[in-house]
């Protein structure tokens, strides 16, 4: 197969995207968030361009809430810094140098830019360790014992990616050896052998401030209680939840921070609507509630009341239009010129008999 050359014509405008963004950030981000970030980069290169959230939302066919959600995400991972005025209104967006992140993904404070009123959240990006770095880590007896115990527990040698993930927990997330061992053991005991799943759990624990095995054990019990409640509400028995279903539960409990009551309410409504445990349907309900800032069952009741009121008003408007459109039709029929003549009753049978007798 011939080589393919990538090229463009001379003199066109260009928006540069850092390789570090593509390699380290783009693959983990929602596709719509990536589109918004790229459009921000494009807008940055427009001289005299008056940027607004509403303009961006219209351009990409999003809502303003979608745009703000993307801004928050990119601030969280450290690529943007949102700046606010005295009225707490968004007044500026500072682009953090992607190349300026250290290999653990900590965001350095910019040397010359106005300080944001909200703190910048340091987040972590899993690094790609070199073979020399991996060798240096494993020379530490504590780390070496941890890797050996993990290999023994899973019953096979670790891949370089799995080794890097464990080292990331130890060095990047500052998890102690006991906590890492508990993470691996509890995950495998519950049927989750994927290091991708374990890494998500490790990140959730770090974000929640969990630093000890006791804290993790309490969180795990709470998670198991939610899983059990979901299974019961969905009518699932005789099997465990599959990984994709568990990812939904993790999303509802850890990302949306919904209580067990709210999650099970969505599951019950799913069964009533679909008559089967359709997790994607439940997710659509809970995502809608999350977008509406639902915090408790009272908030759900208020949304239900608003929905009923809106549906009733829509139905009344539809009926009103139907009635008004039918009235002119009846009036038109009564005014037809053929109806202005007096109608005569004719006995066609008598006429027929008269015709026969005359013959």
Overview of the molecule:
The chain has 359 residues and is mostly helical. The protein has 3 domains: 19-100, Arc Repressor Mutant, subunit A; 126-211; 221-317, Orthogonal Bundle (Arc Repressor Mutant, subunit A), CATH 1.10.10.630. 60% of the residues lie in helices and 3% in strands. It contains 15 helices and 2 strands. The chain has helices at 19-24, 31-44, 53-60, 64-76, 131-138, 141-154, 160-172, 177-189, 195-207, 213-234, 243-255, 260-274, 279-291, 297-334, 348-358, and strands spanning 80-84, 90-95. The protein has a two-stranded antiparallel ribbon with strand order 1-2. Helix 8 (177-189) packs across helix 9, helix 10 crosses helix 11 and helix 12 crosses helix 13. The protein is flat, with a radius of gyration of 33 Å. The termini are far apart. The model is unreliable at 1-12 and 102-123 (pLDDT under 50).
CATH superfamily of the largest domain: DnaD domain-like
SSE order, one letter for each helix or strand? HHHHEEHHHHHHHHHHH
> Which architecture of the largest domain per CATH?
Orthogonal Bundle
Helix proportion: 55-70%
Query: Which runs of at least 5 residues are low in confidence (pLDDT < 50)?
Result: 1-12, 102-123
**Termini gap:** 100 Å
Write down the CATH class of the largest domain. Answer: Mainly Alpha
Keywords:
359 residues, mainly alpha, Arc Repressor Mutant, subunit A, two-stranded antiparallel ribbon, 15 helices, 60% helix
Short recap of the structure:
The protein is mainly alpha-helical.
SSE topology sketch:
Blueprint: H1 19-24, H2 31-44, H3 53-60, H4 64-76, E1 80-84, E2 90-95, H5 131-138, H6 141-154, H7 160-172, H8 177-189, H9 195-207, H10 213-234, H11 243-255, H12 260-274, H13 279-291, H14 297-334, H15 348-358
Antiparallel strand pairs: 1-2
Helix pairs in contact: 2-4, 3-4, 6-8, 8-9, 10-11, 10-12, 12-13
């Amino acid at each position: 197969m011939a080589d393919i050359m990538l090229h463009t014509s001379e003199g066109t405008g260009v928006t540069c995207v850092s390789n570090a963004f593509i390699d380290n950030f783009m693959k983990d981000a929602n596709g719509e968030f990536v589109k918004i970030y790229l459009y921000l980069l494009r807008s940055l290169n427009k001289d005299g361009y008056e940027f607004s959230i509403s303009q961006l939302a219209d351009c990409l066919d999003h809502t303003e809430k979608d745009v703000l959600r993307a801004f928050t995400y990119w601030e969280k991972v450290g690529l943007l810094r949102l700046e606010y005025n005295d009225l707490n209104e968004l007044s500026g967006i500072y682009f953090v140098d992607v190349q300026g992140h250290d290999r653990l993904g900590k965001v350095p404070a910019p040397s010359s830019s106005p300080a944001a009123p909200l703190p910048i959240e340091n987040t972590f990006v899993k690094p790609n360790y070199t073979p020399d770095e991996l060798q240096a880590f494993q020379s530490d007896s504590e780390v070496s014992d941890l890797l050996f115990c993990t290999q023994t527990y899973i019953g096979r040698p670790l891949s370089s990616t799995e080794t890097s993930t464990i080292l990331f927990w130890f060095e990047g997330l500052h998890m102690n050896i006991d906590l890492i061992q508990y993470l691996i053991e509890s995950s495998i005991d519950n049927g989750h052998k994927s290091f991708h799943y374990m890494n998500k759990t490790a990140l959730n624990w770090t974000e929640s401030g969990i630093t000890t095995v006791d804290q993790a054990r309490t969180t795990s019990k709470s998670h198991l209680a939610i899983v059990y409640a979901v299974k019961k509400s969905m009518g699932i028995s005789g099997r465990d939840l599959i990984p994709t279903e568990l990812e939904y539960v993790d999303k509802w409990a850890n990302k949306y921070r919904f209580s067990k009551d709210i999650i099970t309410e969505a599951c019950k409504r799913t069964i009533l609507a679909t008559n089967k445990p359709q997790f994607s349907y439940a997710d659509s309900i809970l995502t809608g509630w999350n977008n509406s800032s639902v915090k408790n069952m009272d908030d759900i009741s208020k949304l239900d009341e608003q929905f009923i009121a809106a549906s009733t008003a829509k139905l009344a408007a539809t009926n009103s239009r139907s009635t008004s459109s039918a009235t002119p039709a009846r009036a038109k029929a009564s005014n037809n010129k053929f109806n202005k003549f007096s109608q005569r009753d004719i006995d066609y049978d008598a006429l027929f008999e008269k015709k026969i007798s005359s013959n």
